[in-house]
């Protein structure tokens, strides 16, 4: 029986010791060149690991980028369609009753009444964008399980909505098309009161100082409206998203937030916020009578919300035009909007 310690015997039968690197027969041990030739040598480049993509996964949930909120239509009380893509202008009649009286006499024919009508003009702005898709482009996005065509459709809707929202705030330069923040008919903003901490900003204002600014704005609105308001009338208090939290300031006297005190004094007042009220001239606040005598104060108007034109087939691609139109914000009663700048 062969000795189990005989390494040649063990090697013939495929027996290897894991803690031994190389075996050689005893008669070969003194022949160093032969031993060196027996060492394994790499012909290929040394292994650096597996391809990185094999250890990568793709999350099927698509994360949407967070954009600024679109609040203009909400502030205006909704959007209104006026005309269509063929409409070139809008004329709005503004009627004013007039007349005078004289002392009565049986044979006196004095006194008269009249009606004065003016026409206020606005111009629409029609705009467009193009959706383009390549055949190979769509196929490659499909490899990543991305419906690129649907993504482009969503981008068209988002682009139009964002432009429309901006037009409701700022209008269109060069046209009789204005916004809620820059309509030339708006009455000049009043200034806030100087605060105990200095300046007019609400940043370091007390709850009582903030409340007094809101009361001052309502007083200005009542003056503009000729005393036709009641504190129970529906109104909107609009300010920036950075100033709205200041309405939660707690009063040191009543231990209630400013917003609660406002709600008690003006039970039908709604507070709204939009980033656009942080203007280049300072923090703006508006107090708006939503409607008066059945007339809505602000229209957020459009001619076409979105018109999808025919898809055009190219050699290995497609393109499609989309169009829409905006009137900006049509302010029907400028006196129903009071402003305060610098809060």
What is the topology?
Elements (H helix, E strand, L loop, with lengths): L6 H6 L19 H6 L34 H5 L2 E3 L8 E11 L11 E11 L2 E10 H9 L4 H23 L36 H18 L10 E5 L18 H8 L3 E5 L4 E2 L2 E8 L1 E2 L2 E2 L1 E16 L3 E15 L5 E5 L2
Helix pairs in contact: 6-7
Question: What would you note in describing this structure?
Answer:
With 343 residues, this protein is α+β, with helices and mostly antiparallel strands. The protein has two domains: 31 residues, no CATH class; 274 residues, hypothetical protein PF0899 domain (hypothetical protein PF0899 fold, 2-Layer Sandwich), CATH 3.30.2320. The strands form four sheets. Strands 5, 6, 7, 8 and 13 form a five-stranded mixed β-sheet that branches. Strands 1-11-12-4 form a four-stranded mixed β-sheet. A two-stranded antiparallel sheet has the order 2-3. Helix 7 links the parallel strand 5 and strand 6. Helix 6 packs parallel to helix 7. The chain starts with 6 loop residues before the first helix and ends with a strand. The model has no long low-confidence stretch (mean pLDDT 89).
In brief:
This protein has 343 residues and is of the alpha+beta class. It contains 7 helices and 13 strands.
Q: Helical residue percent?
A: 10-25%
Question: How much of the sequence is in beta strands?
Answer: 25-35%
- The CA-CA distance between the termini, in Å, is 104 Å
- This entry's quaternary arrangement is single chain
CATH architecture of the largest domain: 2-Layer Sandwich
| Residue runs with pLDDT of under 50 for 5 or more positions | none
How many discrete structural domains? 2
- The number of E-state strands comes to 13
Largest sheet, in brief, is: 5 strands, mixed
- Gross morphology: elongated
Mean pLDDT: 89
């Amino acid at each position: 029986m062969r000795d189990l310690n005989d390494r040649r015997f063990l090697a013939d039968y495929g027996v290897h010791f894991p803690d031994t690197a190389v075996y050689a027969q005893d008669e070969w041990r003194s022949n160093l060149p032969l031993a060196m030739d027996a060492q394994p040598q790499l012909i290929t480049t040394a292994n650096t690991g597996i391809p990185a993509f094999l250890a990568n996964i793709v999350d099927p949930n698509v994360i949407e980028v967070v954009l600024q909120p679109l609040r203009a239509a909400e502030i205006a009380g909704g959007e209104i369609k006026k005309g269509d893509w063929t409409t070139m202008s809008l004329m709005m009649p503004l009627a004013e009753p007039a007349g005078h009286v004289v002392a009565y006499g049986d044979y006196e024919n004095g006194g008269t009444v009249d009606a004065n009508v003016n026409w206020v003009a606005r111009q629409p702005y029609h705009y467009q964008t193009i959706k383009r898709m390549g055949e190979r482009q769509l196929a490659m996005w499909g490899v990543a399980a991305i419906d690129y065509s649907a993504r482009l459709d969503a981008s068209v809707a988002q682009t139009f909505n964002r432009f429309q929202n901006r037009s409701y705030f700022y209008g269109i330069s060069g046209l009789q098309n204005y916004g809620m923040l820059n309509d030339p008919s708006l009455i000049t903003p009043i200034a806030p009161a100087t605060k105990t901490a200095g300046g007019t900003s609400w940043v370091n204002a007390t709850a009582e100082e903030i409340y007094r600014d809101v009361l001052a704005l309502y007083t200005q609105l009542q003056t503009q409206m000729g005393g036709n308001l009641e504190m129970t009338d529906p109104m909107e208090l609009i300010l920036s998203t950075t100033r709205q939290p200041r309405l939660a300031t707690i009063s040191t006297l009543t231990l209630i937030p400013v917003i609660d005190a406002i709600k008690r004094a003006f039970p039908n007042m709604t507070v709204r916020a939009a980033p656009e009220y942080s203007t280049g001239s300072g923090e703006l606040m508006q107090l708006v009578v939503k409607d008066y005598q059945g007339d809505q104060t602000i229209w957020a108007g459009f001619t076409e919300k979105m018109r999808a034109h025919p898809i055009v087939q190219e050699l290995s691609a497609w393109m499609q035009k989309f169009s829409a139109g905006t009137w900006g914000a049509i302010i029907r009663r400028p006196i129903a909007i009071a402003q305060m700048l610098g809060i």
